[in-house]
Amino acid sequence: MKEKWNFIFYLIWFSYLIMSAVLMFGHGFLLSRKTMSDITECQHLETFDCSGRERGNSSIEESCTLDEKIKQILSVTGSPLICAPSHGRVVFILVDALRYDFTEYDDKLEKPLPYQNRLPVMQRTLELCPDCVRLFRFIADPPTTTLQRVKALVTGSLPTFIDASSNFAAMELQEDNIIDQVVNAGHHAVLLGDDTWSRLMPRRWFRAHTMYSFHTWDLDTVDIEVDSKIYDELKKDDWDLLVAHYLGVDHAGHRYGPNHSEMKRKLDETNARIEKIIKIIPKDVILYVVGDHGMTESGDHGGESKAERTAAMFAYRGAGFGGQSPDIQTGREVEQTDLAPTMSAAFGRPPPAPSLGNILFPVLPKMTVAETLLHLTNSLKQVSQYLVRYGEESQQVSLDRLAHLINATREQIEKAATVKTEDDLSIYVSNVRLLMDNVRIVFREVWVEFDTVSMLRALLLLILVIFFNWLIVEGIPIERLPNIFASTFVSCGLISMAICVSVCYTVFHFELLEDVHHGVILSTGLISSALTCVLVIMHWDGISQRWYEGRSPIYERFSRGALMASAAVLLSNSYIIEEGAELSFLALSVLGTIAWNIGTIKAFTLWVGFGATLVISRSYRGCREEQGDCWTSIGVGSTGQASRTALVMALGSMAAVVAIARRHVGWRGHGVVLAGLFACAHWALGWGALGSPSRSRQLARGSWLILGSMFVLLWKRERFGAILPLIVCSLLFFIANALVLGASFAPSAALGLLAGYLALNVVSMMKNGNSKFSLSTRCSSSVACMWALLASYQFYGTGHHATLGHVRWAPAFHAGDPNYLPIGPFVTGALVSLELFGMPFMFGAAVPLLALWGRNGAAAAGPRTQMAAVFTLCLKFGLCFAVRVFMSALSATIHCRHLMIWGVFTPKLLFESGACAAALLGTVVGATLTAWHVPTQIKPS
């Protein structure tokens, strides 16, 4: 039966078109800033004579002081950047997620919270030697993820949102940075701790002792390793920069939150090590202890809330610092972009090429007026060069604004020669700081260069795919579909796409096409739209007749309106924040209209049970920062593990599912029961302080092995048709979802399964107008819309919400650390994706059951009709998600300069795209399983 496989190929074709359009939109919308490979170079003072000119080949000795030579150089117009005198060695300690209020000390607190008054060494050292210590609020730019923060710290530039996608797969940094500046000057840098640094900047380190940093439930391994090395390194004198990155505070926040005894322990350890380091280091060595970001009250980070952005910066130098009040005021806010030019100045180097920061003189040794001016002019010249180069490479900033900033920087460079006294210098420093702030503001406004052409092409492609496929499934009569797909329609489409791909790569080979990927996506999308348009035209008689004769019932029209309402509210940030409640209401309403149309007590009872299930699942809905004070992790105890009640509920829900499965799914029930028992044993054995994590992980692996084996066995053909394999497939996906969700949220997966089962039984009672079974009625838009709304709600119903900072990474390690596997990154991505989008995937795979489920079911219909019905329903289900993705993309386009674009609209686009991909993949799996088990056609149905 050729047509049933053409149905599958068309679903794959449709999925490719939707996701390729989404990728094209993302390529245009989520562009990072223009990065350049420029490197800031400087010339040594020895190459200049006392008149400020380069010596050339002259060997005449001249006598002048260093300050006099610098002043002469500053008076020469167009002088290059000069390498300033070095100010000693630097110890840079990054305490991941060191929030500023962790460093505050108040002896009046009678009952301090676990994170309060835990770092008294800072306050005590400040009181003993005010000139030796500085303590500032260290303000980060969003997104507040570790990779972006490290990049900003070493380059002095601003991070971009798209970099968040590679937060856990760091690529080598191609821009100029402080580490490269130090190494290029002939100095040595040593690295200890988080391997993010070595992945970002490989081959730069004189010595490196790094460890894998992604296991957020491990509070001590990396910290212990750093402690075992750092004190010996401090006693050596063969390095100039020592970088140590501690992770314990950040991991304690992720696992327990700041209000926990483990956070108290990690801060106490931090206090002890800072105190020990201060005693060891020589007086001329500068110590910087900084946090890369803060954390929320739940211990998360990644967004732009004040708690996430406000880190701490503690600086110590036994010989004292420079600076004057109010610049040295404790608690003053400084930008994290200021660190790179400041550390460069400490080594006598100019700022890195992309730096947009100010030099923090209060955390540098005291300098003369001439030296200070040299550092300031170096910074101004570097920024001026960057502005010129950026204007040549990108048109983001208007020429007028760019010319104004370039002229302003050059004007300040020329004014440096007129500064003579400390008072003049103070005024000059303030003016330079104001200018640098203005430069940073301009780039913050326009940093993301939206590729509007790619975005509009993607939106056009999406709307064409949605429109023509809607015409196919809503217009062409279902009895015509088998004949259409038995023809050469699909094969012609696939051949046309192959030709398009070949032509694009050929043109690209001859350098007539700049972006081959865009060319492939656009050409295949347009040719596919043209083919579906031709198909619609050829069958317009059937479409028009069906629309003329048929009148959609009220529940059909209501369901379409509900779907459009769920998509339209994505234009509002307030509705996105409260989307979980809105989706549950719409799913309940659509199923209610279907039950009302059926008009039986049984249908009404099932609908009431469906509503009760959604109400209970509300307990598992997470909360965003914008929603105020509410719970975000029900069922999680004070130790960060599942509470006793949650564990009992998880075991009970799994036991109920496997018990029912064992009774009703035949021999396949043995595998389902065994996988469920292994999952229960995994939770029970790993729970509590007396649990065995290693044995728990072994049991989880056993469960995954059984699930994989059972999925393979599903393809064994039997005479019972496709219903039983689809049921077992859904149960296997449920157990997989429960495994990655963990004991705390496993009951929410059971509630999702129960809600789907109740809705399925309501749908199975639908009849046509003559009270007879009708596949066309079962495959109506109302059923697809209800199922899509329910699948979308289950993302929220399992404790998720659309923010990057609250992605749960622990599921990647529930069966062990995949980093040590050859396919470790793939396993990590698959497990985290399943944890996020497992429910839309499960509901997508169960779509064929909506057409085939029931006592009378589709048994009376022939195989061709069954496959046509399954195809229609799968395509409608995919269209529902495609509509929501289109509205998310449109919303991001409209609000691209909205205040909440990076906090609300962009994360929603990413998560909606992920849910759509999971749902489409699920429909392909479910439809393929159905096609495999549906018997071959013997006679026309």
Automatic annotation (TrEMBL):
<keyword id="KW-0337">GPI-anchor biosynthesis</keyword>
<feature type="transmembrane region" description="Helical">
    <location>
        <begin position="698"/>
        <end position="715"/>
    </location>
</feature>
<keyword id="KW-0812">Transmembrane</keyword>
<dbReference type="GO" id="GO:0006506">
    <property type="term" value="P:GPI anchor biosynthetic process"/>
</dbReference>
<keyword id="KW-0256">Endoplasmic reticulum</keyword>
<dbReference type="GO" id="GO:0051377">
    <property type="term" value="F:mannose-ethanolamine phosphotransferase activity"/>
</dbReference>
<feature type="transmembrane region" description="Helical">
    <location>
        <begin position="583"/>
        <end position="616"/>
    </location>
</feature>
<keyword id="KW-1133">Transmembrane helix</keyword>
<feature type="transmembrane region" description="Helical">
    <location>
        <begin position="836"/>
        <end position="855"/>
    </location>
</feature>
<dbReference type="InterPro" id="IPR002591">
    <property type="entry name" value="Phosphodiest/P_Trfase"/>
</dbReference>
<feature type="transmembrane region" description="Helical">
    <location>
        <begin position="561"/>
        <end position="577"/>
    </location>
</feature>
<dbReference type="InterPro" id="IPR017850">
    <property type="entry name" value="Alkaline_phosphatase_core_sf"/>
</dbReference>
<feature type="transmembrane region" description="Helical">
    <location>
        <begin position="745"/>
        <end position="763"/>
    </location>
</feature>
<keyword id="KW-0808">Transferase</keyword>
<comment type="pathway">
    <text>Glycolipid biosynthesis; glycosylphosphatidylinositol-anchor biosynthesis.</text>
</comment>
<dbReference type="InterPro" id="IPR039524">
    <property type="entry name" value="PIGO/GPI13"/>
</dbReference>
<feature type="transmembrane region" description="Helical">
    <location>
        <begin position="867"/>
        <end position="889"/>
    </location>
</feature>
<dbReference type="GO" id="GO:0005789">
    <property type="term" value="C:endoplasmic reticulum membrane"/>
</dbReference>
<feature type="transmembrane region" description="Helical">
    <location>
        <begin position="484"/>
        <end position="508"/>
    </location>
</feature>
<feature type="transmembrane region" description="Helical">
    <location>
        <begin position="909"/>
        <end position="932"/>
    </location>
</feature>
<keyword id="KW-0472">Membrane</keyword>
<feature type="transmembrane region" description="Helical">
    <location>
        <begin position="454"/>
        <end position="472"/>
    </location>
</feature>
<feature type="transmembrane region" description="Helical">
    <location>
        <begin position="7"/>
        <end position="30"/>
    </location>
</feature>
<protein>
    <recommendedName>
        <fullName>GPI ethanolamine phosphate transferase 3</fullName>
    </recommendedName>
</protein>
<comment type="similarity">
    <text>Belongs to the PIGG/PIGN/PIGO family. PIGO subfamily.</text>
</comment>
<dbReference type="InterPro" id="IPR037675">
    <property type="entry name" value="PIG-O_N"/>
</dbReference>
<feature type="transmembrane region" description="Helical">
    <location>
        <begin position="520"/>
        <end position="540"/>
    </location>
</feature>
<feature type="transmembrane region" description="Helical">
    <location>
        <begin position="722"/>
        <end position="739"/>
    </location>
</feature>
<dbReference type="Pfam" id="PF01663">
    <property type="entry name" value="Phosphodiest"/>
</dbReference>
<keyword id="KW-0325">Glycoprotein</keyword>
<feature type="transmembrane region" description="Helical">
    <location>
        <begin position="672"/>
        <end position="692"/>
    </location>
</feature>
